[in-house]
Amino acid sequence: QVQLVEYGGGLVQPGGSLRLSCATSGTIASINAMGWYRQAPGKQRELVAVITSGYSTNYADSVKGRFTISKDNAKNTAYLQMNRLKPEDTAVYYCNADVSTITGSTWHRREYWGPGTQVTVSS
Fold first, then answer.
1. What angle do CA 54, 57, 61 make, to 5 degrees?
2. 3-class DSSP state for residue 94?
3. Is 53 exposed, middle or buried (0-12, 13-18, 19+ CB in 10 A)?
4. Is residue 32 within 8 Å of 96, Cβ to Cβ?
5. Closest to 7 (Cα-Cα) out of 123, 114, 112
6. How far apart are CA 11 and CA 38, in angstroms?
7. Cα(51)–Cα(106) distance, rounded to whole angstroms?
8. Please, which pLDDT band fits residue 1 given cuts at 50, 70 and 90?
9. Could you report the per-residue pLDDT of 63-75, keeping only the tens digit for each?
10. CA 114 to CA 85: how far, in whole Å?
11. How does pLDDT run across 6-45, given as a tens digit for each residue?
């Protein structure tokens, strides 16, 4: 069973910074991609940033130049460095991982989600 847990959320003033971490656990054969999504009250969940196994990255236009996604393959952990935070960045941030596992000789591939961590940007 693969599990994801996010760390690092909290309350920060506008212009401040936070660093989110997403730790994975379980028997993982490979992680194909990891991403961060967010959902603000009354809004749909949206992609914030994604990083592939080949270190390609993609960002939502609203966070380009302010947020940076990275990963540590040895720890199967992804990070989201958030700088110059704005009140509109306030949301629950979710980690997502596209993971391959092996049962016997059979490969399985599916996405997993963490429970989310609250980020609030307010003075």
1. 170
2. strand
3. middle
4. no
5. 114
6. 15
7. 25
8. confident
9. 999 999 999 999 9
10. 22
11. 999 999 999 999 999 999 999 888 999 999 999 999 999 9
Cross-strand partners of 76: none
**Strand pairing of 117-121 and 10-12?**
parallel
Q: Which residues contact 5 (CB under 8 A, 6 or more apart)?
A: 22, 23, 25, 95, 114, 115
Given its phi and psi angles, is residue 119 left (phi above 0), alpha (psi -120 to 50 degrees) or beta?
A: beta
Give the pair of three-digit tokens for residue 31. 């992680």
Alpha-carbon distance values, 58 to 11, 35, 36, 121 (Å): 26, 9, 11, 23
In angstroms, the Cα distances linking 53 to 8, 15, 65, 97 are: 23, 31, 22, 11
pLDDT at 80 over 90: yes
